[in-house]
């Protein structure tokens, strides 16, 4: 069953061809009228020169005889009152001067030429003399038909690709998120198909990420919830200050985990950051280092971004080093070229090279790590998201002497100096 779009495009094309054919026919008809008018004027002057007014009747008849034989025509000359002066060939109808069109048709063509002196010359012949008598409408109809037939497969091919695109979009809309559409060619239809496939890939990744995040979050939430439930039961049986602190610690862990989940979800959906400002990165790192007990050294650097998110990035790196690494933990800020480079190093067991990329995945649990110990949570995953939203990146290196070193690179904001 052909689509409505195909019919619309094809009928629009045929209507356009019909409009062009009608306009061309009108133009040709008007042009033929002007040509015929000019031809009649020239023909009248030509015949008047061959049969001048002062020529006697016998000379006129002799001239008509020559014309009749040469043109295979019946010719007659009439005076201004319509009386016959001379003729050659078969007799012409009496009313040929008033209605010459009635005596044409078939294989005959009639014409009447009015001379400047008032005389009239009537002729009936087997072929026309003057402008071509061929009908241009036949040629226009033939051209329109050929174009219409040639356009059919072209329009059908275009609309068939659009139909495949529509079926793919419909399948994707029904929940088949792995559905893609063919992106053959380099025209606008192919560009739309490629854009759809790109958007579908992005949405599929987001859905998979959110499903994994939800599954991992529910798994990670069970441990602090179980500890909290047990601490509450024990506290009800025998209130104790240590158990109260345990309850508060578990609540803080739950609160931080929920906050990280919400932040990760928000960073997945935003295109660009709001409330950007100049951030003194060394001062921010020093403040977080003083809060967590991490030694901070380096050179000043200014970046453009969200101060709260950058602070969260620094805090996560330091807390990760303190929680999963070993003392001492140090942070160093350098400015190589147009970038600010923050290094946070610990002296713990480090991370195997085979896992240095996967460590930035949400809730990644390194091999050999027990269920009770837990995974890496969302800390490093948020570091990567925040760095990428600021046009930067994060990577892991194994420093000489052991331990782990995480390196965040952010573009530096340079302030133009005023010249007095």
Automatic annotation (TrEMBL):
<keyword id="KW-1003">Cell membrane</keyword>
<keyword id="KW-0808">Transferase</keyword>
<dbReference type="InterPro" id="IPR005467">
    <property type="entry name" value="His_kinase_dom"/>
</dbReference>
<dbReference type="InterPro" id="IPR003661">
    <property type="entry name" value="HisK_dim/P_dom"/>
</dbReference>
<feature type="transmembrane region" description="Helical">
    <location>
        <begin position="137"/>
        <end position="155"/>
    </location>
</feature>
<dbReference type="InterPro" id="IPR004358">
    <property type="entry name" value="Sig_transdc_His_kin-like_C"/>
</dbReference>
<keyword id="KW-0732">Signal</keyword>
<dbReference type="GO" id="GO:0005886">
    <property type="term" value="C:plasma membrane"/>
</dbReference>
<feature type="signal peptide">
    <location>
        <begin position="1"/>
        <end position="25"/>
    </location>
</feature>
<dbReference type="Pfam" id="PF00672">
    <property type="entry name" value="HAMP"/>
</dbReference>
<keyword id="KW-0067">ATP-binding</keyword>
<dbReference type="InterPro" id="IPR050980">
    <property type="entry name" value="2C_sensor_his_kinase"/>
</dbReference>
<dbReference type="Pfam" id="PF02518">
    <property type="entry name" value="HATPase_c"/>
</dbReference>
<keyword id="KW-0472">Membrane</keyword>
<keyword id="KW-0597">Phosphoprotein</keyword>
<keyword id="KW-1133">Transmembrane helix</keyword>
<dbReference type="Pfam" id="PF00512">
    <property type="entry name" value="HisKA"/>
</dbReference>
<dbReference type="InterPro" id="IPR036097">
    <property type="entry name" value="HisK_dim/P_sf"/>
</dbReference>
<keyword id="KW-0547">Nucleotide-binding</keyword>
<dbReference type="InterPro" id="IPR036890">
    <property type="entry name" value="HATPase_C_sf"/>
</dbReference>
<dbReference type="GO" id="GO:0000155">
    <property type="term" value="F:phosphorelay sensor kinase activity"/>
</dbReference>
<feature type="domain" description="Histidine kinase">
    <location>
        <begin position="216"/>
        <end position="414"/>
    </location>
</feature>
<protein>
    <recommendedName>
        <fullName>histidine kinase</fullName>
        <ecNumber>2.7.13.3</ecNumber>
    </recommendedName>
</protein>
<dbReference type="InterPro" id="IPR003594">
    <property type="entry name" value="HATPase_dom"/>
</dbReference>
<keyword id="KW-0812">Transmembrane</keyword>
<feature type="domain" description="HAMP">
    <location>
        <begin position="156"/>
        <end position="208"/>
    </location>
</feature>
<keyword id="KW-0418">Kinase</keyword>
<dbReference type="InterPro" id="IPR003660">
    <property type="entry name" value="HAMP_dom"/>
</dbReference>
<dbReference type="GO" id="GO:0005524">
    <property type="term" value="F:ATP binding"/>
</dbReference>
